[in-house]
């Protein structure tokens, strides 16, 4: 797997990351969603540099200009509900992409820290020989992405996979490196050092879905 850790270099991205982590700013849910969206836009711009383009021409009011056109067939798949603001940020840049949505949640069968990831809903087009972008804001253990990949197997084999995440753990990154094909790209804003006993990223930012849309039962 090819890991692109964008926070390893200074850019305006650090402002957005700092704000989604800040417990005071997090209280503004609209701002939290917009910052996740903006991070998705930054990651999408960097991702776009690795895609295929072809020469084309556009007619302006005063002449003809040679330019480049994206040729990848993209399917953007987001994990609900936390992935929705990130999905929108990516879609702002890849507005011609097909869209897929999948639900995945942690199930604690014995009420303890151990959990399984349950996938219950999937709506997706064919991904056969297409460029698949998987959007999940929090890459904690990596088990969610593993189960999503398995769920998509019946929809074809993509030409290439790009994972877009906001915050991840070193453990989660290492885990999916053994799950996904070697030519998979991970585009991630920042990576934290550890997980707690419940599998949450430390220091992380909390529950991205709750911060975006309110606390669930």
In short, what is this structure?
With 217 residues, this protein is α/β, with parallel strands linked by helices.
Give an overview of the whole structure:
The chain is an alpha/beta fold and 217 residues long. It has one domain (2-210): Rossmann fold, CATH 3.40.50. Helix content is 29%, strand content 34%. It is built from six helices and twelve strands. It has helices spanning 13-21, 29-48, 84-93, 143-151, 170-177, 208-213; strands at residues 2-5, 53-60, 63-70, 74-80, 98-107, 116-123, 131-135, 138-139, 160-169, 185-192, 194-195, 201-202. The strands form three sheets. Strands 1, 4, 5, 6, 7, 8, 9 and 10 form an eight-stranded mixed β-sheet that branches. Strands 2-3 form a two-stranded antiparallel ribbon. Strand 5 (98-107) and strand 6 form a beta hairpin. Helix 1 (13-21) runs antiparallel to helix 2 (29-48) and helix 2 packs across helix 3. It is globular, with a radius of gyration of 18 Å. The N and C termini lie far apart (36 Å).
Annotation keywords:
217 residues; alpha/beta; Rossmann fold; eight-stranded mixed beta sheet; two-stranded antiparallel ribbon; 34% strand; globular
Helix-residue proportion: 25-40%
Query: Radius of gyration in whole Å, from Cα?
Result: 18 Å
**What coarse outline follows from CA principal-axis ratios?**
globular
Strand tally is: 12
Question: Main beta sheet: strand number and arrangement?
Answer: 8 strands, mixed
What name does CATH use for the topology? Rossmann fold
Q: Which structural class fits the helix and strand makeup?
A: alpha/beta
Mean pLDDT over the residues: 93
Element-by-element helix/strand order: EHHEEEHEEEEHEHEEEH
Poorly predicted runs of 5 or more residues: none
Helical run tally:
6
Oligomer: single chain
What is the CA–CA distance across the termini? 36 Å
- Main CATH class: Alpha Beta
CATH level-two architecture: 3-Layer(aba) Sandwich
Q: What fraction of residues sit in β-strands?
A: 25-35%
How many structural units, i.e. domains?
Answer: 1
């Amino acid at each position: 797997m090819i890991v692109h850790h964008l926070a390893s270099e200074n850019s305006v991205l650090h402002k957005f990351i700092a704000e989604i982590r800040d417990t005071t700013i997090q209280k503004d849910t609209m701002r939290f969603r917009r910052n996740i969206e903006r991070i998705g836009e930054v990651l999408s711009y960097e991702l776009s540099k690795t895609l295929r383009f072809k020469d084309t021409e556009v007619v302006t009011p005063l002449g003809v200009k040679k330019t480049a056109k994206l040729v990848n067939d993209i399917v953007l798949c987001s994990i609900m509900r936390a992935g929705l603001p990130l999905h929108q940020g990516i879609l702002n840049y890849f507005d011609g992409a097909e869209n897929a949505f999948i639900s995945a949640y942690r199930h604690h069968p014995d009420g303890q820290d151990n959990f399984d990831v349950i996938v219950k809903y999937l709506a997706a087009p064919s991904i056969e020989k297409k460029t698949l972008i998987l959007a999940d804001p929090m890459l904690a253990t990596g088990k969610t992405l593993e189960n999503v990949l398995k769920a998509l197997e019946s929809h074809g084999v993509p030409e290439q996979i790009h994972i877009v995440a906001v915050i991840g753990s070193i453990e989660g990154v290492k885990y999916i490196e053994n799950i996904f094909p070697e030519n998979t790209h991970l585009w991630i804003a920042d990576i934290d050092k550890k997980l707690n006993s419940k599998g949450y990223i430390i220091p992380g930012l909390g529950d991205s879905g709750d911060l975006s849309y309110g606390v669930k039962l």
